[in-house]
């Protein structure tokens, strides 16, 4: 397959499997000679923040001189964003070659009666093939959904596992309590790995994490202490902190990103106990240089344009906290949300910062329609307009905004909007 054929093939695979991802991916990797066994991993799971932690860690390790694979999901503009090596996307022909190998392995499994492979299984396997071929020193690996049964959990050689903020998302699959969700996330813990945990967790989740770390015989468990944070005053959306003696300039706004950065610091320190050399300067510079689109991304300061993939209630809370700290109000907003994400709560949380709202339908079969979302929004907003397309909504919003524009509610929406703003 060439690149376009390979991408069309992988996107055409089912999204929901008859068997769990870890089982599917394990079988694919077995067919392909277990390339993952030659790699070492930092594995990152959580409800919110896992992508930010993954890219910051990869940037830190690159700064320390290592050859670093970074596998994240979903992508915003280019499918190849999911496959990074020292911050650079995989070449099209290389990705096509590895997806072709995955397809051949999948067809062998199908001939043997195993017909359960989905898109995420294939994507994860292709990434591991590439990282093994490139002889990466270490791979920063973000889970897709959950952890225990996730495709990425087919790997074994985990040096450090990071558990980011746990919230109630995908409850139909992961459970309806913090304890159940934490149990699934902690499925990535491997014997004798180190564990680093986001410092602000529901107590029910934290209790379960402690139990799971003990049962996995983890070498150490670190939870950053809140008293070790000092937040510097600065310009709106600037995020400078001192954490435990590390002066950090975090490229992503919000207190939650400062907490994510502390997870990165502690994971880097834990790696030194595993034999890697990660100097303090690499930690500081790596965090400063990290880039990740659509995470409270300030596309313009004048006029103010904010793009955020906040896709659930906790994401909306983090965004609202950031807007409050920056003293931003009376925004014009374009919002689109998927079903099952707590749209009513998200809209209520963001309402103090929005004067005029345009609702849209994100490009997803799970999307709430613009009209349905507008009906929900009218409980919290006096000026709501449903719009049939995202480009039309952006055009209308930009022509009428006074104090700035906010686009948020889904990474699907963020992806479509960013193409309009960033050319």
Automatic annotation (TrEMBL):
One function term, GO molecular function aspect: ligase activity
One Pfam family hit: Mur_ligase_M
Residues in Mur ligase C-terminal domain copies: 295-409
Gene3D superfamilies found in the cross-reference section: Mur ligase, C-terminal domain, Mur-like, catalytic domain
Protein EC: 6.3.2.17
Domain Mur ligase central: 44-267
Taxonomic superkingdom: Bacteria
Catalysed transformations (reactions): (6S)-5,6,7,8-tetrahydrofolyl-(gamma-L-Glu)(n) + L-glutamate + ATP = (6S)-5,6,7,8-tetrahydrofolyl-(gamma-L-Glu)(n+1) + ADP + phosphate + H(+)
EC top class named in words: ligase
Keywords per UniProt: ATP-binding, Ligase, Magnesium, Metal-binding, Nucleotide-binding
NCBIfam families: folC (TIGR01499)
Family affiliation: Belongs to the folylpolyglutamate synthase family.
Protein name: tetrahydrofolate synthase
Species assigned in the record: Ruthenibacterium intestinale
Lineage, broadest ranks: Bacteria, Bacillati, Bacillota, Clostridia, Eubacteriales
């Amino acid at each position: 397959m060439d690149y376009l054929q390979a991408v069309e093939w992988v996107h055409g695979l089912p999204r929901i499997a008859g068997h769990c991802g870890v089982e599917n991916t394990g079988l694919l990797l077995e067919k392909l000679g277990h390339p993952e066994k030659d790699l070492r991993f930092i594995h990152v799971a959580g409800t919110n923040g896992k992508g930010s932690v993954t890219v910051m860690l990869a940037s830190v390790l690159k700064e320390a001189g290592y050859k670093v694979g970074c596998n994240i999901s979903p992508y915003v503009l280019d499918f190849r964003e999911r496959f990074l090596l020292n911050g650079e996307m995989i070449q099209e022909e290389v990705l096509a070659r590895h997806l072709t190998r995955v397809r051949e392995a999948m067809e062998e499994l199908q001939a043997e009666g195993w017909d359960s492979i989905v898109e995420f299984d294939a994507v994860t396997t292709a990434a591991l093939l590439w990282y093994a071929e490139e002889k990466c020193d270490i791979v920063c690996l973000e889970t897709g959904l959950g952890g225990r049964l996730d495709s990425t959990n087919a790997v074994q050689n985990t040096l450090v596992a990071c558990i980011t903020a746990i919230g109630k998302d995908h409850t139909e699959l992961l459970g309806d309590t913090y304890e159940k969700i934490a149990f699934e996330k902690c499925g990535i813990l491997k014997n004798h790995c180190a564990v680093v945990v986001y410092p602000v967790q529901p107590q029910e989740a934290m209790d379960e994490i402690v139990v799971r770390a003990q049962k996995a015989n983890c070498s150490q468990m670190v939870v950053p202490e809140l008293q070790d944070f000092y937040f510097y005053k600065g310009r709106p959306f600037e995020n400078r902190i001192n954490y435990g003696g590390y002066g950090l300039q975090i490229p992503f706004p919000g207190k939650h990103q400062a907490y994510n950065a502390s997870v990165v610091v502690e994971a880097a320190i834990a790696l030194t106990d595993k034999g890697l050399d990660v100097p303090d300067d690499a930690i500081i510079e790596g965090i400063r240089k990290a880039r990740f689109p659509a995470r409270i991304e300030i596309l313009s300061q004048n006029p103010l344009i904010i793009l955020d993939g906040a896709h659930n209630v906790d994401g909306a809370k983090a965004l609202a906290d950031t807007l409050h700290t920056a003293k931003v109000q009376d925004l014009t907003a374009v919002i689109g949300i998927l079903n099952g994400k707590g749209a009513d709560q998200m809209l209520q949380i963001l309402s103090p910062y929005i004067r005029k709202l345009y609702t849209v339908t994100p490009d997803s079969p799970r999307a709430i329609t613009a009209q349905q979302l507008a009906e929900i929004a009218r409980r919290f907003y006096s000026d709501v307009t449903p719009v049939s397309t995202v480009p039309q909504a952006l055009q209308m919003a930009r022509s009428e905004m006074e104090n700035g524009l906010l686009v948020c509610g889904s990474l699907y929406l963020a992806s479509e909007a960013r193409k309009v703003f960033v050319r």
